[in-house]
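User: I've been trying to design a sequence by hand for this structure and keep getting stuck. Would you show me what you'd pick, starting by listing the structure so we're on the same page?

Assistant: Good idea, let's start from the same input. This is the structure you sent:
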C-alpha cells in the first residue's frame, strides 16, 4: 500500500450519527486526533431522522433506579443489568453535556425541560428538541461542532470496507477507495440493520455494515433475533411508505383503532406488545392498516410529523392515519463490554451497531439516543487506553474480505420480512440459512437458537417464554456456531 494512501490518527470513528459524532467529539476533547468516516454528507444519517427523544431521569420525582426498573421490565428478563445501570446513571449528565454543546431542548417559559411520556415508561422522562425533531437537532449541532474541531478529520463520502488486522488485533480500517486508516482504536458506529427487511422505517443505508465488518474481523455478534418493529409506520402512501409516527404522539393521547372504529390495545404498552396486537388484528381482518387517531393532538407540538403527513396528502387534524408495523431497531449487534470493546482487540462498537445487552428483548422507547451518548463517550475514552499506533513490525497487516456494501436483493428483504418478521417459524428461519446475504444467515442462526417467544422475537412453534432462557443471549462467533450465553 502506498504511503500516501495510509492515514494515521489516534482513533477512527466509522459512522456519523449521534453515537459516532459524540464519540469523535469526546475523543477530540481528550486530545486525540480523530478520523470521522461518513458514507453520506454529515447530518444525513439515520439519527438525523430519529423522532424520539432522549430518556433520562431528570424530573424531581424520577431517579436512575426508576429508569432502570422500566428498562428491565421492557426488556423481558433479557436485559444485562450492568449495562442498564450505566445508561440510567449517566444519561442525565449526557443530556446536560448536550446543552453545554449548544443543543436546545424543549422547555417551558421558565426554562424547565418539557418531559414527554412514551411507551413502557412509568412517568415523563423523555427530552425532545423541536418536538419530534430531536435527532435532527442533535445531529445537526454535533456535526457543526465536528467540522469546526481541528482534531477531527472528517472523511465524507468514504465507506469502510474491512478492518485491518495484525496478529488478531484491529489496527484500523480499510476504505473502499483504497485508502486505509492506521489507528489505536477503531469505533464502529454505523447504525443498525433494519433496512434488510422489505418494510422498514430506516433509510436505505441501515444494512448492518458495521456488524458485518466486525464479524468478518472475528468479533462475536449477539441477539440478532431481537429486531424491534415500530407499531405506527405509515403504509400505502406513495413517498411516505415506512415513515414512522413517533410514539411520543401516543404519549400525548393519540389512539389506535381497527376497521370497526374500536380501540384494541393499550397504546403505551411496550412496542413489542403493540406491534403484535396490530399484526394479529390485521391477520384476522385481512386489512392492511389500522387507524392512528391524532386529531386531538396539537399540530404545533409535532410540526415535522404533521408537515410530512400533509405533504403526503394526509391531514392528521381531520382523518385517521393508516399505519402498520415496520422493521425499526436492532437490539442485537456486535458484542461489547461496558466500554464498547468488542471481542476483537482494538475494535469497538457503539449505538445500534453494538450489543451490550442493555435493551434485552425489547428496547424501552428513547433509550437508543441515550445509549449513543453514554456508550459513545465511554468507547472514545477507552480507545485512548489502547497501545500507541503500530509501527513497522515483522508481522504483516491483513484485511479480512471486504464486506459487500450493496443494498441486498429484494428477494433477501422479502425473505426476512416473511421468515424473520413479527412471527417466525422453524421452517421459515431455516430457509434463511441459504440466503446469499451473510447477515440474513446470522439473524436466522440467532433466531433458531432461541426456541421460545420473548419480546421482539415471536416463534409460532414456541409461543411461550422459557424461564430457563432468562438472561441468555444467542451469540455467534467467527466460526458461525451459535451458542447461548448467560449475561448478568
Amino acid at each position: 500500500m502506498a504511503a500516501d494512501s495510509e492515514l494515521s490518527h489516534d482513533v477512527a470513528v466509522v459512522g456519523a450519527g449521534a453515537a459516532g459524532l459524540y464519540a469523535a467529539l469526546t475523543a477530540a476533547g481528550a486530545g486525540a486526533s480523530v478520523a470521522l468516516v461518513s458514507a453520506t454528507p454529515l447530518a444525513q444519517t439515520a439519527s438525523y431522522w430519529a423522532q424520539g427523544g432522549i430518556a433520562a431521569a431528570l424530573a424531581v420525582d424520577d431517579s436512575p433506579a426508576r429508569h432502570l426498573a422500566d428498562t428491565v421490565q421492557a426488556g423481558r428478563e433479557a436485559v444485562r443489568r450492568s449495562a442498564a445501570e450505566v445508561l440510567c446513571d449517566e444519561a442525565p449528565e449526557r443530556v446536560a453535556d448536550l446543552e453545554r454543546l449548544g443543543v436546545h431542548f424543549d422547555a417551558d417559559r421558565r426554562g424547565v425541560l418539557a418531559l414527554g411520556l412514551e411507551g413502557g415508561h412509568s412517568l415523563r422522562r423523555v427530552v425532545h428538541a423541536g418536538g419530534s425533531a430531536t435527532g435532527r437537532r442533535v445531529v445537526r449541532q454535533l456535526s457543526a461542532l465536528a467540522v469546526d474541531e481541528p482534531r477531527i478529520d472528517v472523511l465524507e463520502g468514504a465507506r469502510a470496507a474491512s478492518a485491518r488486522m495484525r496478529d488478531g488485533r484491529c489496527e484500523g480500517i480499510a476504505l473502499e477507495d483504497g485508502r486505509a486508516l492506521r489507528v489505536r482504536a477503531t469505533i464502529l458506529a454505523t447504525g443498525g440493520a433494519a433496512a434488510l427487511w422489505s418494510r422498514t422505517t430506516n433509510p436505505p443505508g441501515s444494512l448492518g455494515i458495521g456488524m458485518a465488518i466486525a464479524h468478518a474481523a472475528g468479533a462475536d455478534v449477539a441477539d440478532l433475533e431481537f429486531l424491534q418493529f415500530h407499531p405506527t409506520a405509515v403504509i400505502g402512501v406513495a413517498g411516505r411508505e415506512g415513515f414512522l409516527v413517533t410514539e411520543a404522539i401516543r404519549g400525548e393521547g393519540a389512539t389506535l383503532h381497527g376497521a370497526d372504529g374500536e380501540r384494541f390495545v393499550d397504546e403505551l404498552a411496550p412496542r413489542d406488545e403493540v406491534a403484535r396486537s396490530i399484526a394479529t388484528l390485521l391477520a384476522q381482518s385481512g386489512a392492511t392498516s389500522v387507524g392512528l387517531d391524532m386529531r386531538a393532538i396539537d399540530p404545533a407540538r409535532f410540526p415535522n410529523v404533521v408537515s410530512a403527513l400533509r405533504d403526503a396528502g394526509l391531514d392528521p387534524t381531520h382523518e385517521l392515519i393508516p399505519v402498520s408495523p415496520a422493521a425499526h431497531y436492532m437490539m442485537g449487534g456486535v458484542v461489547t463490554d461496558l466500554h464498547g470493546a468488542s471481542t476483537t482487540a482494538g475494535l469497538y462498537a457503539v449505538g445500534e451497531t453494538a450489543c451490550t445487552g442493555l435493551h434485552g428483548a425489547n428496547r424501552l422507547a428513547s433509550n437508543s439516543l441515550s445509549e449513543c451518548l453514554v456508550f459513545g463517550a465511554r468507547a472514545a475514552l477507552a480507545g485512548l487506553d489502547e497501545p500507541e499506533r503500530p509501527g513497522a513490525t515483522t508481522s504483516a497487516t491483513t484485511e479480512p474480505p471486504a464486506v459487500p456494501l450493496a443494498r441486498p436483493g429484494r428477494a433477501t428483504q422479502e425473505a426476512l420480512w416473511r421468515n424473520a418478521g413479527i412471527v417466525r417459524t422453524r421452517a421459515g428461519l431455516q430457509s434463511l440459512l441459504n440466503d446469499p446475504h451473510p447477515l440474513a444467515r446470522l439473524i436466522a442462526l440467532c433466531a433458531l437458537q432461541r426456541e421460545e417467544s420473548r419480546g421482539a422475537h415471536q416463534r409460532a412453534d414456541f409461543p411461550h417464554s422459557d424461564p430457563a432462557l432468562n438472561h441468555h443471549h444467542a451469540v455467534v462467533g467467527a466460526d458461525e456456531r451459535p451458542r447461548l450465553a448467560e449475561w448478568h
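That's my pick for every position. To get oriented when you compare it with your attempt: The first strand starts at residue 6 and ends at 8. Residues 229-327 form a domain with the Flavocytochrome C3; Chain A, domain 1 fold (CATH 3.90.700.10).
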